[in-house]
Amino acid sequence: MFENAFNNIDRAMRNDEGLASELDYAEQTSWLLFLKYLDDMEHEWADEAELQGDDYTPLLDPPYRWGNWAAPKTADGQFDPNALTGKDLIDFVNGELFPYLKSFRDSSDSADSLEYKIGEIFAEIANRFRSGYTLRDVLEIVDTLNFGSSQAKHELSDLYETRIKRMGNAGRNGGEYYTPRPLIRAMIQVVKPVIGETIYDGACGSAGFLCEAFDYLRRDDLSATQWDTLQTCTFYGQEKKSLAYVLGVMNLILHGVDAPNIRHTNTLAENLMDIQQADRHDIVLANPPFGGGERKEVQQNFPIKSGETAYLFLQHFIRKLKAGGRGAVVIKNTFLSNTDNASIELRKELLSSCNLHTVLDCPSGTFQGAGVKTVVLFFDKGAPTRKVWYYQLDPGRSLGKTNPLNDADLAEFIALQADKADSANSWTLDVENIDPATWDLSVKNPNTPEAEALRSPEQIIADMLARDAETAALLEEVRGLL
């Protein structure tokens, strides 16, 4: 039923000239789903208050509640034929609804409250529907979705994840929000979070790491206290870009986190020296953006200055970990071998302040359309690195859009990593053998036969001249026989 509903939403959106791509579809679906979810939750909270003999005050004033403008019904439960539509509906959404919802950000006391998140979402997103008739069709489809059960949320979350994944084919920005879920699950299985620990992603995008960590930790036998811990004080994220922030909040909600602790902010604008013990976390899981670059004033927040965004994030993540905390971070493989000062200093910092116990070397095609090779760094904060265990992932095929990474591809890595066993694809590097001038951590599998050294240009010319001389001698012999 939900899949049909999402397909019908897509068909309706294609008829609106204001919606041009999967990016637009995901953005517009997000704010509509959020308001429907909020309405369902308000009804649930009202019922709980009534059972306890308490009064419940709805978050939204009557004109802005879902049932009054989005899906008004007649006495027999049918859609009201007099509901706003056409230009009247667009004028209401743009001129009244969005400004009202945006005002929640200024009236809220805490950035972690649901009220603040309502205001933040609608301050950063715009209604792109131009036809009130198309919007009316979509509203009636969204109204059929029900967030009242965990099964419904699970199915909706799968569909929403599929929508986010499709964004990667809609433009360069889409791919920034999606990390292959099998890779995320493998990272989580290595880090092994437990309930009571805090998990942080300072570049959370669509919150894939936090959603998968929630799925890893949730169980049917959790106590009420454990469930409350998961809901309120386990998952923390920050995201700079508006669309990604909205996607992340909605993704966590659909996975079952009612009021996600995601903040819309530029993580790198925080000075590393201002991070206190209370700001630190037990676990960092992240895939920070590659390339890019931050302004000079942002780089001043870091002891190791760099125009590479991922290098700034790695410094941030090390600082955000508690002593004994565990990190798993995706980064370009060139970080292991670059010879610029920032790369060398950052490798030295990582090896001296953390135990970089595992490096997972990912094959080309792991990130669809990214065009770069990546590695995953697994490290524990608080003790220097003595040995690094490498695993070179080889799925035995070329990865791509029609042949993506899957969980089975990573099964051997997870099995061997527990004991850091050597194999044809894994080996151990002793840090004592690293050149302290470069701190080079390049992936060099000692089990792979070395390619025969290429001849020098001088040797090639000498060989060619020798063959020419041999050929000339043979021709002279033939001439003598004639």
How large is the share of residues in beta strands? 5-15%
CATH architecture identity of the largest domain: 3-Layer(aba) Sandwich
Number of structural units classed as domains? 3
Order of helices and strands: HHHHHHHHHEHHEHEEHHEHEEEHEH
Any low-confidence stretches, pLDDT <50, length ≥5? 171-175
Portion in helices: 40-55%
Largest sheet: 9 strands, mixed
Within CATH, the superfamily of the largest domain carries the name Vaccinia Virus protein VP39
Radius of gyration computed on alpha carbons: 28 Å
N-C termini distance: 90 Å
The total count of strands amounts to: 9
Structural class: alpha/beta
**Global geometry:** globular
Mean pLDDT: 88
Tell me what the structure shows.
GO terms for molecular function: DNA binding; N-methyltransferase activity; site-specific DNA-methyltransferase (adenine-specific) activity. It is an enzyme of class 2 (transferase). This is site-specific DNA-methyltransferase (adenine-specific). By secondary structure, this protein is α/β, with parallel strands linked by helices. It is 44% helix and 12% strand. α4 (86-102) packs across α7 and α10 (208-217) packs parallel to α12 (242-255). The radius of gyration is 28 Å and the shape is globular. The termini are far apart.
Main attributes?
482 residues; globular; 9-stranded mixed beta sheet; 17 helices; Ferritin; 3 domains; single chain; alpha/beta; Rossmann fold
Summarize the structure.
With 482 residues, the chain is an alpha/beta fold. 44% of the residues lie in helices and 12% in strands. It has 3 domains: 2-148, Ferritin (Up-down Bundle), CATH 1.20.1260.30; 156-433, 3-Layer(aba) Sandwich (Rossmann fold); 456-482.
